[in-house]
Amino acid sequence: MNSEYSQHLALSFVVIYLVLCLGIGIWSYYRTNSTSDFFAAGRSLGPVLIGLAIFSSTLSGFGFVGGPGLVYASGTSSIWMVSICALGFALTFFTIAKPIRIIAELRDCISLPDVVYARYKSNTTRLLLSLTIILGVMGYLATQILAMSIVLFSLINSIEVFSSITLFQCIIFSTIMLIFYCTTGGIIASIYTDLIQGTIMIIGGLLICITAINVYDGGLNEASSILFRDHPESIMPFGTSGILVCLAWFFVFGIGYAGQPHVVTKMMMNRSIRDNRIILPLSIFGFTFAALLWICIGIIMRSTVIDGSIDPLSSPDQAAPVFLNIFTNPYIAGIVYAGLFAAIMSTADAFINIGVASITHDIPKSIKGSPLKNDLFWARIGTVALCTIASIFATYSYYYNDRLVALLGAFGWGTFAAAIVPVLVIGLNWKKATREAAAFAIFISLVINFSIEIFSISIPYGIPGSFLAIITSITSFIGISLATSNVLDEDINEALSI
């Protein structure tokens, strides 16, 4: 099967999926009658939908594009990110899932800052958390747009009729698709797309793993031997980044999973707390299969470049698209491409929803005590604004800042983790936690994360700034809580006792 025909076939899968997305968006539009529907799906979703949505939102463009790119660039270092996430799933469910669902129902919360306000009775804390979410969403949403554009560009670039299309034009197209999809469907569209996405990711992860193993006669062992001969450190347990960086990632991605608002918010949407007994194992099972993509593609692409089988990549983020184009059966590649676009679309929708909720619902409530009037209308306007700004950020990052997709995603992850983990994981399980502690922990985490990023501050041994931020925020949260006090409302006190 010739290369251009294979590209046409893979592109046809993507086109079919995008048309399906438009249909889901339009269908969801007629099911979205209130802000509760738009942001929280009316808290009416079943365990299979929630389980698939939670694990698939974790990987998305970050895992599909950024993960293999990091393995290609730095060897096995980034495997510490993905390997700890199973523990992160368990920690999140056992510490947050029950209290956040109970509080959401007690106080009719439709957003994470609503829950935080109910727990701490502090508009300052709600405002700071809303600002954190908006800032973190910018990095994460840019990651999704950039990942979608890179994959689309790689897919169509070798087709003659599309050869003149640039990456920038792909960014514009991706942004327009996201705007239409997200403004029509809200979180309902995202959740139902996750059903498709999660299924494809599980099947695709298994098929890609089988494909990767068969690239060399000796399988991944032979690929690892090639990497070892070229650069032994790259295939060692800590890769080329070193033990301190890997352990920092291990901590930030393990503990920090419980601070990801696009994941935590979905725990407010299930019909019953009892559903968590199904949601947790389903999420871990799905994530395990999907994570195979991260590891296998990166190792194979690096080894085939080293042995001269293929030319060096123009960017590490090209690892996944090039692998699919060269080594994968075009039908499997088409399915995985469709799954990748599903991952990006639904995860971007989830981020847009939490960002827009902060703008139209949480910040106005923090300042004047009520959301914007006609807030469903303003939610859709906010969606357009967020997508546009994030696309500008994505363009700048790619052309002028040389940031890998995974590093953009890691910055967003770290921003959320440092600000939200102490407030939720500790605060929903320790009645002594206070509003002053919550506000300061969020504030100091933002100062540290953004100071390091904006001023390009170098931390010894390459340790990520998010590690320093989360350690500081947790420590200060506990210390200030011990030094201050507040009284819980009776219903919240009871909710935290269950």
Cα distance, first to last residue? 60 Å
CATH topology: Sodium/glucose cotransporter
The value of Rg in angstroms is 22 Å
DSSP helix count?
19
CATH class: Mainly Alpha
Element string (H = helix, E = strand):
HHHHHHHHHHHHHHHHHHH
CATH architecture: Up-down Bundle
CATH homologous superfamily name?
Sodium/glucose cotransporter
Low-confidence stretches: none
Which class do the helix and strand fractions yield? Answer: mainly alpha
Sheet with the most strands, sense and barrel status: none
Task: Describe the fold and architecture.
The protein has 498 residues and is mainly alpha-helical. It has a single domain, classed as Sodium/glucose cotransporter. Helices cover 77% and strands 0% of the residues. It contains 19 helices and no strands. It has helices spanning 3-29, 35-40, 47-74, 79-83, 85-107, 112-120, 123-156, 167-213, 219-230, 243-255, 261-264, 276-306, 319-327, 330-368, 375-401, 405-426, 435-454, 465-483, 490-497. The longest helix is centred in the middle third of the chain and has 47 residues, at 167-213. The relative contact order is 0.19. The mean pLDDT is 84.
